[in-house]
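Try this one yourself first.
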């Protein structure tokens, strides 16, 4: 029997792979022909599994060791076997046609086992941008095959990276998946798979969320009155994945948490609330929303602050007769506390009521009324009547002027209903 060095030694060495399964392999047996021969290089129980191209394998045993006899049609074998150590070992192959025996000795072995494939739990991308989904493979070799699958509605589809202009990667040198110019339809679950010889490994799905920069809108708002409360709405779309809400006044960050008069500006309640509005609250307000892919800002909205002037309404006054008494009722709305209400007749103050005479309307502190009486009406009372209110903010409010008519003699009223329209007719009897 002749032995010689195999010129394909290096090529064959690259194709040998070992798979660690906890077995102590320190002997390699290759048996061809009618007689069995064991090539031993140590002790211990082991199992050999040979993967042979164009060949058939039968299970046998030798000296209590289990192995497989592989008959190769062309004399060339591609081997894979189980091993748990990296001791010196020998592989021998006998070619019966040429009676040549080759030996390979190794002090190290390239271990192959089922690959463990991991990806992130989730990824976020922005429309129009680029992103890379990492894929980590524990056992990566030159002949490892990488595949990427997209899972949608219970159906997994292999991504054809080679024929795509937007997908790159998915090779043993670069297992990661890169997506160029991300689109909304790229959203979904992705799975990375790796194959080493007959062993496959798959990652758990990684969900790719595709987001857009948030769109923020603040509508126009009515002027605020000093002392009142106001809410400046902030509408954000889409609301999902928003990570932060900020408010700006005149392009400066508004410290909502450091001011007891402000609230809101959160992810769950983005609108801004201002309590007891002050004159210096007037300005331009901007709402900003942030998500993992970008920032959106509203157009600045100007909030005007009006002084807290009392609003005064004078009840209608009917014509009166000289010598009678007339009661005038004034209705006042004021955020600040009212101090006094004055009745002015022909630019002359004829009556002033202090705060103790004011009455609440339905228990509302900001809406009050007061009744003022003119006793023994005279002819000179005829003319303009105005109600004026003064509050603690230092502002005066005036009603619309009302024309008081004073008659001499007896005044009677008759009310006639005709076709559902009420008409009023006055008859005057002059008595001297």
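Now uncover the answer:
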């Amino acid at each position: 029997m002749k032995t010689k060095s195999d010129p394909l030694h290096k090529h064959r060495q690259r194709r040998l792979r070992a798979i660690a399964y906890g077995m102590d392999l320190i002997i390699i047996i290759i048996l061809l022909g009618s007689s069995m021969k064991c090539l031993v290089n140590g002790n211990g129980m082991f199992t050999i599994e040979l993967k042979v191209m164009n060949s058939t394998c039968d299970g046998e045993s030798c000296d209590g060791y289990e192995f497989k006899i592989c008959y190769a049609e062309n004399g060339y074998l591609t081997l894979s076997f189980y091993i748990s150590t990296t001791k010196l070992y020998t592989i021998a192959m006998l070619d019966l046609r040429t009676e040549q025996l080759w030996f390979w000795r190794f002090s190290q072995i390239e271990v192959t086992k089922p690959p463990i494939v991991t990806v992130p739990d989730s990824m976020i991308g922005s429309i129009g941008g680029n992103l890379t989904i990492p894929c980590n493979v524990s056992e990566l070799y030159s002949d490892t095959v990488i595949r990427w699958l997209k899972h949608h509605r219970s159906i997994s589809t292999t991504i054809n990276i080679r024929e795509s202009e937007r997908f790159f990667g998915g090779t043993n040198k670069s297992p990661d998946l890169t997506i160029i110019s991300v689109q909304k339809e790229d959203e979904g679950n992705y799975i990375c798979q790796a194959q080493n010889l007959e062993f496959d490994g798959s990652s758990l799905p990684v969900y790719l969320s595709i987001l857009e920069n948030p769109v923020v809108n603040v509508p126009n708002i009515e002027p605020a009155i000093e002392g009142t409360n106001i809410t400046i709405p902030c509408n954000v779309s889409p609301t999902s994945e928003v990570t932060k809400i900020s408010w700006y006044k005149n392009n400066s960050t508004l410290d909502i948490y450091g001011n007891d008069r402000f609230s809101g500006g959160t992810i769950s309640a983005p609108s801004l609330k201002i309590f007891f509005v002050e004159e210096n609250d007037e300005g331009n307000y901007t709402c900003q929303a942030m998500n993992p892919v970008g920032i959106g800002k509203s157009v600045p909205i100007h909030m005007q602050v009006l002084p807290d002037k009392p609003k005064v309404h004078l009840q209608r006054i009917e014509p009166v007769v000289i010598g009678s008494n007339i009661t005038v009722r004034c209705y006042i709305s004021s955020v600040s506390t009212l101090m006094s209400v004055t009745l002015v007749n022909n630019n002359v103050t004829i009556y002033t009521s202090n705060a103790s005479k004011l009455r609440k309307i339905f228990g509302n502190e900001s809406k009050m009324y007061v009744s003022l009486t003119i006793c023994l009406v005279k002819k000179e009372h005829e003319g303009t009547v105005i109600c004026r209110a003064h509050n603690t903010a230092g502002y005066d409010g005036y009603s619309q002027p009302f024309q008081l008519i004073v008659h001499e003699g007896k005044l009677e009223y008759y009310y006639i209903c005709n076709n559902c329209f009420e008409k009023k007719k006055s008859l005057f009897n002059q008595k001297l």
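Discussion: The chain has four domains: 2-106, 117-211, 215-306, 311-407. Helices lie at 9-15.
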